[in-house]
Amino acid sequence: MDADKLEHFRQILTQQLHQHTEQVRGNQQAALDMIADDGVKDSVDMSLQDVNQELQLRLGERESQMVADIDQALLRIDEGSYGVCQQCNQPISERRLEAVPTARYDAACQSVLEEQQGLDDIATL
Ligand SMILES: [Zn+2]
Question: How does the average pLDDT of the chain come out, rounded?
Fold first, then answer.
């Protein structure tokens, strides 16, 4: 991949990193606000509060994962391995990277991995 393209994806990823970092901060703040809110509540309010808190923490977890994925993609740009499938070493199509800038695998390997993941999930039930 040429330097201009790499720079293009670096900009997209940097922008996304910024957005998700803000979101993680927002979620954590919202969760903390709920914990800090120790006004008098009846039991119905309390359980609603617990549900909301759980939701916020889960959302935070997913955002944290996004941030980690973006971080790793930026690292691959620095290392010169960005845009190459980590499974079969074939270049990932630019169309796919435009849609999923954090993609680690090409479409073929991704679907195989997802299939294996799905089977693993079933096996653990
Ligand atoms: Zn591949």
Answer: 85
Residue 91 structural domain: 84-125
In angstroms, what is the span from residue 13 Cα to ligand 1's centroid?
21
How close is the Cα of 27 to the center of ligand 1, in Å? 35
Shared domain check, 91 and 73: no
Q: What is the pTM of this model?
A: 0.72
Same structural domain, 2 and 59: yes
Task: Give 66 Cα–ligand 1 centroid separation in angstroms.
Answer: 21
Query: Helices H, strands E: what count in the chain?
Result: 4, 0
Q: Are residues 88 and 34 in the same domain?
A: no
What span, in angstroms and rounded, lies between the C-alpha atoms of 47 and 71? Answer: 36
